[in-house]
Each structure stands twice: as C-alpha cells, then as structure tokens.
Amino acid sequence: MGLFDTILEKPSPLGRGITVANLQICFSNSSPLINNIKRIAPKSTNTPASLSNFANSVCLELLRNEDEWVSASCSRDWFAIGDSGGAERKFNTLVAKMGGRFDFEGSSSDDDDDEDEDENDGGNLAVVSVVIEILGDTTTLKNCGSTLASTREVITSIASDVKVDYGEMLNAAEIFWIPDKGGKKVGGFGMDEIKREFPELIWF
User: Fold this and answer.
1) pLDDT in tens, 120-132
2) Which one of 12, 38, 56, 183 is at 20 to 30 Å from 140 when CA atoms are compared?
3) CA atoms within 13 A on the CB side of 189
4) Inter-residue contact 14 to 132 (CB < 8 Å)
C-alpha cells in the first residue's frame, strides 16, 4: 500500500490498520485464576462473538486478580490494511513462539530433594499471555508493566476493544497459561524459572 492509499484508507471503529499485540501477566497464587480461565474457556471459538467473549472474559479475570500481579509486559506491531498478510504472519509467529514457551514444565522432578528445593523457591507463580490481532490503532498498549495503573489501563482497553462491533474488530486471538495442568508443577513456578523463560517481563 502506497502513501496515497494509506491516506484514503477507511478507518475502522478502532482506527486505521491492524494491530498485533502480546500481553503477558505474571501473578502469584496461581491456582484460582488459572482454574477460572479453564472454566470459562469455550469448547469452540469459531465465531467472532465467542472468540471476543473469551478474550474479554480472560482480561476481566486478570483485572479481578490485580492484587496478585507481580510483573507484566506488552509488545505491539502495527500494519496497514494492505499488509494484512504481514499482520497474520506476525500473529502466527507470536502464537508459535508462545506455544513453545508455555509448553515447558520447569525444573522440578520426582526426586524428594528437588521437591524440597522447589518449596524453598516458593514456586507459586503463573503467567497468562493474550495474543491478539485486532483492527485499528487506538487500543491502549503502552507502558504495560511500568506501573499497576498503566497495566490496568492496557488490560481494560483490550477487554473493551475486543467486544467492539460484536467482536468483528478482533481478527484472531490465542490465550496461553502456565501451569496448564497438574503433576509436577501443581503449585506454579519459581521466580528464577519465570525470569529465564520470560525475560521481557517488567517486575513491579
């Protein structure tokens, strides 16, 4: 798309172009929030309404658990409407990257010594990632992690914008979380593990 085409591009209700973003929140007391996200996860998100409702519900769960936040981050890339393929590639790249990250099980093992070590580490941290591809450029995504207030503003903006026009502004979304299931890491992860796997997180 040339400069003239960009100028003439008709904006969506959320502005011009397409935004791809990855919100990540690390929090303590992992079990209740993760269980709530699993509970609200729909069996299918093949309609704009069901996908936007799920993304909105996850953001609301994050906001309800603000007292448990310990770190956060948010990346953002913008694409012109004429480069929708670029936006889709960026979204798919983020999803693949996050899928690999959220598949790790940490350093715990079945050895009693390692279990004692994990308990001393206070392994109770979890991470939720919300990856979205949304029309427009007005969703607030700056300064996530710098303060609680700015992080709250970002999550609130995403929660609101994914519902615009009955979810039609949301091209795609993926939600990731760890720990994902029981077993070795029922209680969550230690800070050293989270910092190693998610170095971009900004700690409050």
Assistant:
1) 345 789 999 999 9
2) 38
3) 26
4) no
